[in-house]
Amino acid sequence: MGLNRGRLRWDNQRRRPITDCAGAIKGIIKHCRHDQTVSLGIYISVPFCRTKCSYCNFASDVFSRVLFDRYVERVCADIENAPVIAREVGGQIERGADSVYLGGGTPTVLDTAQLERIFATARANLEVQSDAEITVECAPGTLTQETLDALLRCGVNRVSLGVQSFVDQEAAAVGRLHKRTTVLEDISRLRAAGITNINVDLIAGLPHQTAESWNVSLEETIATGVPHVSVYMLEVDEDSRGVPQYEISNFARQGFQSRHNLKYWTRQPYFGFGVDAHSMLVSATPDQGAVRFASPDSLEHYIAEAPLQRTEVSRQAALEESFFLGLRLTRGLDLGELSADFGEEALGNFENEVSQFLKGGLMEIDGRYVRLTPQGRLLSNEVFQRFLSPLKPAEVVRATMM
Fold it and tell me: Which end of the chain, N or C, is more open, meaning fewer C-beta atoms within 10 Å of its C-beta?
């Protein structure tokens, strides 16, 4: 389903015509240097929901509340044991975390004491920075005053609301329990409490959705003035107006891009805890690019301490991931940065692919960045495939959906 003009957009920034593609690429690589400081991102999975939505393929479901304490106990034990886990999988933990993301599921179905225990354990063991972005996912209607007060005590400064649609019939058709008025009330209460960094999730392509009803959800979202919107199954028109796009599925007003999600697309280290939580850490082995690992995707196996699934990422695979993930960003890839990380020779192996996409109008160069054009975004899967080896770890794809 496409968008009508006049809605969410990605910034139409200046482009540069390309006459010598290979020369342009080499020039960027030669004159750019990389100077980057990275901090750890923390992801904590809470797989519990009030209802299971029909569109959801994440490891979440409706469970008895008697399991909540056992689960929180297990998650906190893993957080306390993080240095040992990292060492066992062959990774290194970066010092200082600048983002914490509590996702699910619906984390706000936990008791306030359970929420506070999780955050206290993370702060005590993972050196969460004082200015860290701390996000909690909430299903509209679960944000009681008691829960809101607990989030504030935990230092939460960003909330992601799983709205999906502002049309009540569409939301109900996929198992959502809230109404449009519920969402507006939650946004108002969050702002009154001092949490103004709010994300709204929307889905295009829901059952019974039409272009007109999709337009209603977009109008309502923009009218709320929330600074961040995540939109899935969306074709974007670059000439439309609204909240600027910075990633294929994400839009944000100036200064409100998700610090945590940017870690996935820029391959910064992140450590996941809980059911089906995925992690990527710098490898302790110098000739490896990184190590990825994931916890079991069932609650039963996770509580039973089933082993992690581990995948070593070679430097070649890391470079491929950099293209696959970085091209999701509106700004694109910094070729000079990639050259500094992986070397000119390794990057030169992709010169032919980049040149072909530049000539074909699927990519463009803007300063030191190469990025997808609007046409390239429509064909992004085909573009990404050209930069990937035939067999890629499934967790790379999973990470882009978090």
Answer: N
